[in-house]
Specification:
CATH class of the largest domain: Alpha Beta
Strand order of the largest sheet: 1-2-3-4-5-6-7-8
Number of domains: 2
Helix content: 40-55%
CATH topology of the largest domain: TIM Barrel
Structural class: alpha/beta
Number of helices: 17
Shape: globular
Radius of gyration: 28 Å
CATH architecture of the largest domain: Alpha-Beta Barrel
Largest sheet: 8 strands, parallel, barrel
């Protein structure tokens, strides 16, 4: 090849290489924040995203969204909860020693009526992406204090351009939701439910700004930890002012307000965390036993057993919620329930119930004063 021809061809290559594109026009180099996102993951022209996540649909329809709490790793127990009527199941990854493999196995074994949900330990790429890749459709992130932490939760929950979730596969998109109408990747951002928990005074201070971030589905007013971090309890004016601030933040942003199920009568709340599988097993067993005792009593053979049924149920509930306190608010709710039910008991059973309350107060000094206040408010006396 002649030198002239070689030079000519080189010129063609140089011209082709130097041919500018829109991304190369900036003489200072590529700018990600100025890049125009492409259509590769969009729905076909004229199509809108189908809401195939029943939990998201429930919220859009006005709720209430009810989530049961899972603390065990037994797939059979999970299946029972998944088919009990909850909208989603909140697997407890923050306060339990559960592995993602165990969670994935439960979700894969029993899809159930309730969609998979989880409370991750914190706003972290690994935790949130493992949750979503394994199949979670509801993601709850605790202890959000700042706008920056909230944005990190959004980043790892949502695909681009809203977030930064990596398209890594997993049993969620690959098995559980691979037939999502319109495509999993294309419709994920419209279907995921992201709930951020406000649990600290810093979180309350920043709640209004946090609630305004695109991608936040709802704020959860953490009943127990707002008491833990503030030093006040439900019913105290200071505590109620904190809850009111979180509620205002959600209302002004037009997003959902979540809390414990016992707050279902509070205005503005439309999504709730319900009881654990352990509490449900206990309540179901109590109902079954009480029903059997009533039937036996109808035969006229054992009135004594029926008379003790109510106090046994109250004491069993106290023992379950307060024997080892997981959620202080749940323990105090069971104390309230016991104190309210004491008035209807015969004197001997009332004494048995008060003895149980005294023992719980003695075993748990941190809540002893509150237990005494609740009992005294019901017209009873904790002191023997």
């Amino acid at each position: 090849m002649s030198p002239i021809l070689r030079l000519a061809l080189a010129g063609v290559v140089l011209v082709a290489t130097a041919s500018p594109t829109a991304a190369q026009l900036d003489p200072d180099g590529f700018r990600a924040d100025e890049f125009q996102y492409g259509p590769g993951n969009d729905l076909a022209e004229g199509e809108t995203a189908v809401i195939w996540n029943p939990a998201k649909r429930k919220l859009l329809d006005g709720g209430p969204l009810l989530g049961g709490t899972i603390r065990s790793t037994d797939p059979r127990t999970y299946c029972a909860m998944a088919n009990a009527g909850y909208d989603f199941l909140w697997v407890e990854m923050q306060h339990e020693a559960i592995s993602w493999e165990q969670v994935a196995r439960m979700w894969r074994t029993c899809p159930g009526q309730a969609v998979p949900g989880v409370r991750v330990p914190y706003a972290n790429e690994r935790e949130i992406q493992q949750a979503t890749d394994m199949g979670a459709l509801v993601v709850v992130v605790p202890t959000i204090d700042t706008v920056e932490e909230a944005q990190e939760a959004i980043d790892w929950t949502y695909f681009p351009p809203l977030g930064r979730r990596s398209n890594g596969g997993g049993q969620g998109p690959g098995e559980l939701w691979n037939d999502a109408p319109g495509g999993y990747r294309q419709t994920w951002n419209d279907n995921v439910v992201l709930i951020l928990m406000i649990e600290t005074l810093e979180g309350v201070e920043n709640a209004r700004a946090i609630a305004q971030l695109p991608g936040v589905t709802g704020l959860f007013a953490a009943s127990g930890d707002l008491g833990n971090f503030s030093g006040y309890r439900q019913g105290d004016p200071e505590y109620e002012a904190i809850i009111s601030e979180v509620a205002t933040a959600a209302r002004e942003a037009g997003i959902h307000l979540c809390g414990p199920l016992r707050w279902a009568d509070r205005p503005g709340f439309d999504c709730f965390q319900a009881g654990t599988e352990g509490a449900n097993i206990r309540r179901g067993a109590q109902a079954e036993i009480e029903g059997a005792v009533e039937q036996f009593d109808d035969r006229g053979e054992s009135a004594g057993d029926a008379e003790g049924a109510d106090v046994r149920a109250l004491v069993a509930n106290l023992t379950a919620e307060c024997g080892t306190i997981v959620y202080e608010a749940d323990c105090l709710a069971s104390v309230n329930n016991a104190a309210a039910g004491a008035a209807a008991l015969p004197e001997a059973q009332r004494g048995e119930l008060l003895a149980a309350l005294r023992q719980i107060a003695a075993d748990n000094p941190s809540v002893a004063e509150r237990i005494s206040e609740i009992v005294t408010g019901a017209g009873l006396f904790l002191e023997p």
